[in-house]
Request: fold
Amino acid sequence: MSIFNLLRTKKPIPAPWAKYYTEEELHLKIPNISMYDDVHNSYLKYPSYPAIEYFGKKTTYKEFIKLIDKASLSFYTLGIKKGDIVTICLPNIPEALIALYALNKLGAIGNMLHPLSAEEEIKESLNSTHSKYLVMADMFYNKIEHTIKETRVKKVIFASPADSLNIFMKIGYKVKQLGKYKKYPKDDLFISFKHFMKLGRNTKPPKRVRYGKNTPAVILHSGGTSGKPKNVVIQNRAFILAARQEQIQMKRLQAGDCCLAIMPNFHGFGLSVLMHTPFALGCYSILIPQFDSKKFDTLFKKTRPTCVLGVPTLYEALIKCNNEKHLDLSFLKYVVSGGDILTEGLEDSINKYFEEHNSKARITQGYGLSEALAAVTLACDDINKKGSVGIPLASNNIKIINPATLKTVPYGEVGEIVINSKALMMGYLNDEAETNAALRIHKDGHVWLHTGDLGYMDSDGFIFYKGREKRMIITSGYNVYPNHIEEVIESHPAVLQCSVIGIPHPYKQEVAKAFIVLKDGYHGLFVRSEIKSYCQKNLAKYMIPAEFVFRKQLPKTKLGKVDFQKLKSDIGASDDE
Reply:
């Protein structure tokens, strides 16, 4: 049967979560607009409301749109047009968003790249995306000094974290940075963001062309299911839909509220949930270019956000902070954890912390991935079950399948999470084979994103995430899920954090190895046998780790997740030995 005929025979997707939505919400329509249009609409409704807060300085929607339009005219002067790709390699500073929305107004695409990427990674990204221009933090000039001429980049626009600071903070920043990094030369290839913003002053604005929901808007980066770096092409529609989905789920979020953007702009969760969604709803985004987990409580006191989203390790850091003796968190409405597994023990500890600090907010979980613009499921308010990552967002569909047969497994049974959504990526840039491996048409006629993630669904449609398929340990023919072992070990009163990996075994194929961080006052030498006995009591025999290794802290990725690749190469003796 041809794909055309297959698509005509689509069958309805069973949705046990449907009872939590209205019929209109289940069939949510996406207006045919761009990301820029979403922000412009908020400007028309709330011109004097703040859109951005940056180190205490607030920029209104009127000022924000004016800056975006000015930058757009400068890009137009440089020759940027629909479909062109410009790499944005900046931390969470206003210039990153000004550049992105300016490009979006022209129908161009922002390639969002981590500013801490290595020299070769930056060159590879510029070349693989055929980027014509690069907008970059000036402190990282040394990363392109020797390689920029090996790319197609015509001009590098350098922005500084100081550009949008008030005059006194700007002076202080520049004094602190004196001599810390190499300055870029002033020539035709390199210009400052300030100079860039003046390029269009003598250019006649082009006739306004409106780009719709199906126009490519952003490139995010993902390892996909194979682990190889990929360029994920996201259309406007994904951002437009996400804002409306989150408005449905976060019903208490109102225009004028604020979201704390500690997740970066090059991460789908950060860019969508903490930046574009607030802009679409008339809220504002508090931009944090460099997050200090040891001062998380002080940051809360200074910024008083309505909504915050972070990975579990950030909240773990929060409950260890002790900078503010009388911290009042009553202003918090939503606290969401995403990007990694939130264990029940840590969930309880965080909720206890909020309760002790006068907040009615309770941490909930979300789940997603770059290929579906980050947020796919969310638990909020009363629509929540402990340990779950919530239900599919309005108009999203999820099923749990046996990856070998593609058949849906029964409720409660672990399988691969696959997603059907209007927010799915267009595909991986210039990689048809990997795109076809990830986006597949099933017998029901729908396109499903194969995530490589494991989980199960209960009879109410709540999703329980169990980790990456590649993390699953197969020992003596049994499937062992590391997060289950981690939850058990973290429930021991001496344990602060635990991560489990699989290591080779001569005849069992693999066995579990546990890396453990203990709470203050405990030492591995004295609790090792106790934790092992605890595992023997609470885990099946084949699940009990063959090794217990104690570390003062676990390695983290750039996004604050546990770095399992580094754990796999960690063969050192335990810290207690």
